[in-house]
Design brief:
Layout lengths: L1 E5 L5 H10 L3 E5 L7 H6 L2 E2 L11 E4 L4 H9 L4 H4 L5 E4 L5 H13 L3 E4 L2 E2 L2 H5 L3 E5 L3 H6 L1 H7 E6 L4 H31 L4 H10 L5 H12 L9 H18 L4 H15 L10 H8 L9
Parallel strand pairs: 1-2, 1-4, 2-3, 4-5, 5-6, 8-9
Antiparallel strand pairs: 7-8
Helix pairs in contact: 5-9, 9-11, 9-12, 9-14, 10-11, 12-13, 13-14
The structure holds NADP nicotinamide-adenine-dinucleotide phosphate.
Length: 297
């Protein structure tokens, strides 16, 4: 397919590379120049303007947050104004349910299709085409995009015709990951303060009742206190928990754990942890209990 890809951040760069590697004809655009160079060497075409990335059958966007998506879609010469009738906008970003509903409406009015396809998996998974994709939107458009999803992920889960449902599911998933991080951090702070080696403790957990990628990946980061470079930066984590809480308020579902995570991430960022991985909320937890031993001490 002839497609565009907008947003070459930590996640987008690997996804765009996998689309190129699968033989798609990809035109890439990023707000800050320079990030397209590596992709051009692999066979992508670099666009100087958003509109140039919107000339094909579909344009995929992988941007930080609602404000970024709004700027790229609604701005002058943006996706909405540039995409031709019948073409598809696939939004891979983790954005609010409300913005996703708005995007579905405006694209439909413009005769374009809108598919929400947020992803699970960190930049390593994006680079290795191992993402899990949650897709929702008009069935024919989701079907058209299936080769694109196959190029960037290991499995696509379809959740019907209402695009915003995919965003709600993604936000609920990140709430669960955040909750697992907080629980792991509390448990590790507890045993480490008594002198238990964190990595050995993690080995016990992940070899028995907690055999899951979330515990394995984040447990190691917390055990080794390795929060830099950030795979998923704390401000993005705060954004997702805030969006989950907004959706919860709209639907009338209390989420007390969500409120706790919101405050943990706020505290981490207020303490100067803006560039750290969001799993560094474990540092806030450990810090509250006094100095905990690091593994191997
Ligand atoms: N990292 C993860 O582990 C992970 C996992 C799953 C989902 N996600 C979600 O995926 C999305 C991207 O995450 P990421 O980690 O790739 O973020 P990132 O590295 O911070 O990249 C963000 C991208 O958005 C662009 N951008 C930001 N504001 C913009 C604006 N106003 N106009 C145009 N472009 C703008 C940036 O362009 P510049 O280069 O010009 O700044 C960059 O290309 C987020 O919604 C995140 O929640 C991330």
């Amino acid at each position: 397919m002839k497609i565009g890809f907008i947003g070459l951040g930590r996640m987008g760069v690997g996804m765009a590379a996998n689309l190129v590697a699968r033989g798609q004809e990809v035109t890439v655009y990023n707000r800050s120049p320079g990030k397209a160079q590596g992709l051009v060497e692999k066979g992508a075409r670099a666009a100087a303007k958003i509109a140039e990335a919107c000339r094909g059958e579909a344009v995929l966007s992988m941007l930080s947050d609602d404000a970024a998506v709004e700027a790229v879609v609604f701005g002058e010469g943006g996706v909405l104004a540039s995409l031709r009738e019948g073409a598809i906008h696939v939004s891979l970003s983790t954005i609010s349910v409300a913005l996703s509903q708005r995007l579905a409406a405006v694209h439909a009015t413009a005769g374009q299709a809108y598919v929400a396809a947020p992803v699970f998996g960190r930049p390593e998974a994006a680079a290795a085409a191992k993402l899990f994709i949650v897709a929702a939107g008009p069935p024919h458009a989701v079907e058209t995009c299936s080769p694109l999803f196959e190029a960037i992920g290991q499995r696509t889960f379809r959740f019907g015709a209402q695009a915003h449902v995919a965003n709600l599911i993604k936000l609920s998933g990140n709430f669960l990951i955040g909750s697992a991080i907080e629980a792991l951090a509390e448990a590790m702070a507890l045993v480490a303060k008594a002198g238990v080696d964190r990595l050995r403790y993690l080995e016990l957990l992940t070899s028995t009742l907690f055999k899951a990628p979330v515990y394995e990946i984040y447990g190691r980061l917390i055990a080794e206190q390795k929060f830099e470079p950030a795979g998923f930066a704390a401000p993005l984590g705060l954004k997702d928990i805030r969006l989950a809480l907004e959706a919860a308020e709209t639907l009338g579902i209390p989420m007390p754990l969500g409120s706790l995570l919101h405050d943990r991430l706020m505290a981490l960022i207020a303490e100067g942890g803006e560039t750290l991985d969001w799993s560094a909320i474990g540092r806030v937890t450990a810090g509250m209990g006094g100095r905990a031993k690091t593994s191997g001490e």
